[in-house]
Design a protein that fits this description.
single chain; 327 residues; alpha+beta; 8 helices; 14% strand; elongated
Length: 327
């Protein structure tokens, strides 16, 4: 199991704290000067931590994949034991060389103490492994629950999108059968692309879906409506909820521009630690917006993935923003 850098920091803090506490306790029992003994304990703990880091990463990256499953845990505990044993020996050697304390022991006793520290390190390592394993299991459960929730929300938006699109095709059938036929073919192309995608897709994939959607909706325009794309380099791999752009563009076309004339502009920018996608139109705007199912659904999906939806209408421009925090 891969240990994350943040978790290694916690393990280092725990190791130094244990070394500090145990050495201070020993110094008080032996009526020795506390500071040098505590320093020796901290140095020894750092050696043990460093060896544990090296052996664990080496084991996870190159060794464990070749071992049968029943042997992986015992082998990992053996490496933890060796890290504690060798770290304790290095601590004692450092004391002898640097004269940190006045402690001088026969080598037999040094080996015995190192063996005891190795057993303690192995036991603590196994305990930490179980704690991290439980944490990973909880994270996986949360991830599966989140994906299920997203699929449920996606199951709501897909029929909503289909209902609006089929209504548009029905209108075209009465007005222009040839354009209606092209609309049906565009819809089939769009559905083919969308059926096999996950609840989260990249912005690049979402823009491809938007292109197909725009080709379909443009058959309904009563005037000239332009679509402008301004995507900052490096954001095409940003993960977004599926159909998020379609919801906002559809809202701009129907309620902002009323399918007549104007411009819809899609921009994506990195602003500090945030990544923001804007969908703007120069339509009629609004004073107060009552969110329909599409916008409410999108807001919920963004919340689940740590994003948020904001909007403003002023100066002849209506702007919806999808904000994603973090790198």
């Amino acid at each position: 199991m891969k240990v994350r850098p943040k978790e290694w920091f916690y393990i280092l803090s725990l190791a130094l704290l244990l070394g500090f506490s145990i050495s201070g306790f020993v110094a008080s029992l032996q009526d020795m000067q506390v500071q040098p003994v505590v320093l020796l304990g901290v140095v020894t703990s750092f050696y043990i931590f460093t060896l544990s880091l090296i052996t664990t990463e080496f084991n996870n990256r190159w060794l464990i994949g070749f071992l049968p499953a029943p042997l992986r845990t015992p082998f990992s505990m053996l490496l933890a034991f060796l890290s504690g044993f060798c770290g304790a020996l290095l601590g004692y050697v450092s004391n002898e060389v640097l004269h940190i304390t006045s402690i001088h022991l026969p080598m037999e006793k040094v080996y015995s103490l190192s063996f005891f520290i190795g057993v303690m390190t192995s036991s603590l390592g196994y305990l930490l492994y179980k704690l991290l394993w439980l944490r990973r299991r909880e994270e996986e459960s949360r991830r599966l629950l989140l994906e299920e929730h997203l699929r449920n929300l996606e199951g709501q938006i897909a029929p909503h999108f289909m209902f609006n699109t089929l209504n548009a095709v029905a209108e075209l059938i009465r007005q222009d059968r040839e354009r209606a036929e092209r609309a049906v073919l565009s819809l089939a192309k769009l559905l083919r692309k969308s059926l096999h995608l996950e609840p989260y897709i990249t912005l690049g994939e979402e823009l491809e879906l938007l292109e197909d959607y725009w080709g379909l909706m443009s058959l309904r325009f009563k005037g000239s409506i332009e679509l402008e794309l301004d995507i900052e380099e490096g954001l095409l791999n940003l993960r977004v909820p599926k159909f998020s752009l379609q919801v906002l563009v559809e809202n701009a076309l129907k309620h902002g521009l009323e399918l007549k004339e104007g411009r819809v502009r899609v921009r994506a920018r990195k602003e500090g630690s945030r990544k923001v996608i804007y969908v703007e139109d120069n339509g009629v705007g609004f004073k107060e917006l009552k969110e329909g199912m599409g916008l409410t659904n999108l807001r919920n999906r963004l919340t689940l993935c740590g994003g948020k939806l904001t909007y403003v209408s002023e100066g002849g421009i209506t702007r919806f923003s999808m904000v994603f925090n973090g790198e």
